[in-house]
Write a structure and sequence with these properties.
The protein has 64 residues and is an all-alpha fold. The protein has one domain (2-10, 25-62). The protein has helices at 2-19, 24-40, 45-62. Helix 1 (2-19) packs antiparallel against helix 2 (24-40). The longest helix is centred in the N-terminal third of the chain and has 18 residues, at 2-19. The termini are far apart. 30% of the residues are buried.
Amino acid sequence: MKQLISIIAIVTAAFSVSACSTTGGTVLGAAAGAGVGSAATGGSTAGAVGGAAVGGIIGHELSK
């Protein structure tokens, strides 16, 4: 449950930041990547950080 709440908080923050930013794809990709990375590694911080980095790169490239 704690992990779900943190994922929801990350996604909500990403949507609010992307609404007033031109880097929306990067932010949304990072948020999605953090959620997936955390879930895939059983809630580890390293998985969330790695997922955010990869997701941010993918989001940036797709938003070009």
